[in-house]
Design brief:
single chain, mainly alpha, 2 domains
């Protein structure tokens, strides 16, 4: 889900440092920030990362309101990257994501194979998709998170990643091709397993 525009008056209250505005800002956006950081797969402790994002925002000199959301996305991405570089292993974040994903219901398998972009949106927490996502290069995974989870345009993603729009298109194309291949292999394996069980049943 895309991070929505600030409610009227909230930006000015944030700039004045009002505690109630900071609390409202955190409540409104913390869940979306958390999801983006999870999908970046670069932070050892996502809760710590979420807190660091908001601390940076509160301490920063805020840009003009019309540029605020783009700046905010950049803060989120840079925080995930910084924490990812510090940690010794990437396994903790992956395990936490997989545990959350396992609690969600898997969508219909026939729809899963319709198209890879649709798969990403429909199967946000599907363990099979999570496994496929974690195999992508981080630049690809980051682009997928911003496009299909944060709902950013290609131009916005390009600004966040500091690359040309053509590079964003290439990353998304490569990511979707790899995800489609991985999901097809997963589905084929499940079908083969079901056929094997059927043959063994008297």
């Amino acid at each position: 889900m895309r991070i929505e525009d600030l409610p009227p008056g909230l930006f000015d209250r944030l700039r004045r440092g009002e505690p109630s505005a900071r609390a409202q800002f955190f409540r409104r956006y913390a869940a979306q920030v958390r999801q983006i950081l999870f999908l970046q797969d670069m932070c050892e402790d996502v809760d710590e990362a979420v807190q660091e994002v908001f601390i940076k925002v509160m301490r920063a000199k805020l840009p003009p309101q019309e540029r605020f959301l783009g700046w905010f996305y950049t803060v989120i991405l840079n925080t995930g990257r910084d924490l990812g570089r510090r940690r010794k292993t990437r396994q903790a974040g992956l395990e936490r994501l997989l545990q959350e994903a396992a609690r969600d219901t898997r969508p219909d398998a026939d729809q899963d194979r319709a198209d890879p972009a649709g798969d990403v949106e429909r199967r946000a927490h599907d363990p099979a998709l999570v496994r496929a996502l974690r195999e992508l290069p981080y630049e690809f995974r980051e682009a997928v998170a911003l496009r299909f989870y944060a709902d950013l345009s290609l131009d916005e993603i390009a600004r966040c990643q500091s690359v040309p729009v053509g590079t964003v298109k290439s990353r998304l194309h490569g990511a979707l091709a790899r995800l489609r291949s991985a999901l097809e292999r997963e589905q084929w394996g499940q079908e083969q397993g079901q056929e094997g069980l059927a043959e063994d049943t008297p």
